[in-house]
Amino acid sequence: GNSVTQMEGPVTLSEEAFLTINCTYTATGYPSLFWYVQYPGEGLQLLLKATKADDKGSNKGFEATYRKETTSFHLEKGSVQVSDSAVYFCALNTGTASKLTFGTGTRLQVTL
Amino acid sequence: KAGVTQTPRYLIKTRGQQVTLSCSPISGHRSVSWYQQTPGQGLQFLFEYFSETQRNKGNFPGRFSGRQFSNSRSEMNVSTLELGDSALYLCASSLGVGTVGNTIYFGEGSWLTVV
Which residues of B touch A37 (CB under 8 A)? Predict the structure, then answer.
C-alpha cells in the first residue's frame, strides 16, 4: 500500500534560518505529491504540489522537488519567518481519485 | 470563488448520539472526500464521493457513513458516538476527473467533541 514518512518534529528555527523538512514515500504506480500546511485551529491549505518526476513545486518561498530515484519530496525554504510557524503535512495520491495518504505532520516553530 | 464550506464548525455531542456534518465543495468540483484528524492517529481518509457514488472508503466502522447529493454537496453521519470519535473532520473537494494529480482543497473543518 501507499505510505508517507516525515521527519519527526517539532522543528525549532530562528527567523531567517534555512528550513528542510524531509519526506519520503512508498507508492504503487506514479503518485502525485503534495505539501499542505495547517495553522492553529484551521483546516489544511495546499502549499505546493508536483505530479511527475523532477517536477519542482513552489509557492510563497517554499520549494520541493519530486525525486523518483530516492522516492523523496523534501520541503525547503531559504529564510523562514515567524508567520511560517505551523504544521506541515506531506501527502500523495494516485490516479484521478481524491484519496490522499498523509504523513504524520511536522510542527515548525520559528522564533525571533 | 468560494472555498470548501463546512458546517457546523464546532459541536458537542453526548456518547450514543448521532451527528451529521455538511460540506459544500468548490463550485464545479464533483469529488468530495472526508478525513478524520486526531492527535493520536493523524489524518485518516474516511471516504470519497464522486457524482453521488462512493468511490473509495477508508478503514472505519459502519457507524461512519456519507452521501453526496446531485449538486455535489455532501454529508457525513456518525451514529452511536463514542468518546474516540472526538476529532476534527475535514472535507475536501476536487474536480475528480481528468488530469492525474487533481488539486485537492480542504475546508476549515468541523470540530466534534463527544462527552
Answer: none
Peptide bond into A10 cis (omega under 30): yes
AA letter at A85: S
Q: How many CB pairs under 8 A join A and B?
A: 73
Residue range B41-81, pLDDT digits in tens: 999 999 999 999 998 899 999 999 999 999 999 999 999 99
SS3 content of chain A, % helix, strand, coil (to 5): 5, 50, 45
Q: Omega before B8 cis (within 30°)?
A: yes
Nearest 5 degrees, angle CA B39-CA A99-CA B108? 50
**Contacts of residue A43 in chain B, CB cutoff 8 Å?**
4, 6, 90, 106-109
d(CA B11, CA A46): 26
Do residue A89 and residue B43 have CB atoms under 8 angstroms apart?
yes
